[in-house]
Amino acid sequence: MMARCAGPRADSLNQRHELAHPPQTVQRADRPARVDGRHAKNPTSRQLRRRTAGRRCRPRCGGPHRGLIDRMGPAGLIDLIGLIDPTDDPLMTMPRLRPPLNSLAMTLVAVLAAAGVSAQDAYPSRTVTMVVPTVAAGTTDLSARMLAQALAPVLGQSVVVDNRGGGGGSIAATAVKRAAPDGYTLLMQYSGYHVITPLITPQKQWEHADFQPVANVLSAPQIIVVRSSLPVKTLADLIAYAKANPGKLNYASAGTGSLQHVTGVMLEQHAGIQMVHVPYGKGTGPALQDLLGDQVDLTFGTAPSFLPHAATGKLRVLAVTGKERLHNLPDVPTTAEAGYPKVDATSWFAVFAPAAVPKPVIDKLSADIRTVVQSTAFRQKALEYGVTADYQNPRQLGDKVQADLASWAPVVKTLKLAAQ
Q1: Fewest CB atoms within 10 A around its CB: which of 64, 109, 297, 400?
Q2: Which residue stretches belong to region Disordered (predicted)?
């Protein structure tokens, strides 16, 4: 007895199968064939449907179909049959279609698998997010936005900046640590948060092993900036004022363990003065606003955040921490020139990714960032902001992190820095 298919478009398939394989009747010797059609050699299609209603169609051999063909159902099978040879007579071709269908099924699976591999290899295929450990404003945010704007055309995909300030950089770092390791979530990190904060803050949200370096982008010395209403014009004036008013000057930073914090402590120790530290855990932006509002007396930071306000006279730059003057602040002396060569701090801003991101993705990102950072347009724009375009590859950046950890650890211990 012929089995019967059930499901969408089953009637069409059943009719074709019935035509191709008419049922054979076996006449018993003790039972003559009936003339009412029930045992006739040529039963009608209605009789065949009545006999086989509700039964599933089985192949002639090999057991029930499994895998792709079974999941496609009769309708999909009929479509595939039409694709193989639409001019064939179904009566002649149905029994011979099974081997080609098996081959076609395997071919389709192989093609789909290859397409999946190609999709993974074609990085990036969607928007890349760059997480910043500060609120908008500040050099870390500027670094991310400069890079995102220039990197998008090179990658061929949009790069968006996601500000997640707070916790001394731990909120952003933790978010990137927990992100899928596919290269679509990156961290624009600031050296103070990545190197110094872990040395003085007992935080366990993330470790350096949770990330892998991608590329260094910018570097910049710290500058010493005061509110315009403070009665000082030079670094010597500031130190004299601090000594005359011990404990009355306060300075803002991007948070405990930030490079601004360390620079302030270095100045206190080497100049023999005492100031009050006011940490802003969400970055330079809030500290800058309070400095402009005369809520704090001074701060330390990189030039991009402060130059526009210094140009309008709202802030005053007293010194550059380092051995060289900034080209866009030619009249501002260095701390070394002012007699304090050990007050020397330089920030760097670099891209990191979750530790498990595949190496080919890291290599592509780093190469594309190099293309951007080493371009004339990017270098010129960086100089205008008072920072330096400073590309370093993953190995160089990793070495820099380890070297900074080794060099800053004794400084932190000597300065007796502690979380506040």
Answers
A1: 64
A2: 1-65
Which residue has tokens 């400095």? 291
In this prediction, residue 62 carries a pLDDT of 44
Q: What is the pLDDT of residue 166?
A: 87
Extents of the domains making up the chain: 10-16+38-120, 128-218+349-403, 220-346
Phi and psi at residue 3, to the nearest 5°:
-75, 165
pLDDT for residue 100 = 53
Place of tokens 């930071």: 301
Q: Tell me, what's the pLDDT at 240?
A: 97
Q: What one-character DSSP code corresponds to residue 209?
A: G
Q: Which residues of 212-230 are buried (b: 16+ CB within 10 A; e: fewer)?
A: bbbbbbbbbbbbbbbbeeb
**CA 41 to each of CA 25, 26, 37, 60, 339: distance values in angstroms, whole numbers, following the listed order:** 6, 9, 8, 21, 115
Res 322: pLDDT: 80
What is the pTM for the complete model shown? 0.65
Q: What is the DSSP string of 379-417?
A: HHHHHHHT-EEEEE-HHHHHHHHHHHHHHHHHHHHHHT-
Find, among 411, 387, 391, the residue nearest to 400 by Cα.
Answer: 391
CA atoms within 13 A on the CB side of 175: 21
Q: How many residues does the structure list for the chain? A: 420
**At residue 384, what is the residue type?**
E
Q: Exposed/middle/buried for 265, CB within 10 Å: 0-12, 13-18, 19+?
A: buried
Residue that has been written with the tokens 């992190």 in this structure: 401
Task: Give the whole-angstrom CA distance, residue 74 versus residue 93.
Answer: 16
What topology is assigned to 128-218+349-403 in CATH?
D-Maltodextrin-Binding Protein; domain 2 (3.40.190)
**pLDDT given at position 327:** 86
pLDDT given for residue 209 in this prediction: 96
Burial class, 298, CB count within 10 angstroms (exposed 0-12 / middle 13-18 / buried 19+) = buried
pLDDT tens-digit profile of 20-61?
555 555 455 455 445 444 444 555 555 545 555 555 444 444
Of 189, 220, 218, 192, the residue nearest 302 (C-alpha): 220
Name the stretches of the chain with pLDDT < 70: 1-121, 418-420
**What single-letter DSSP state applies at residue 374?**
T
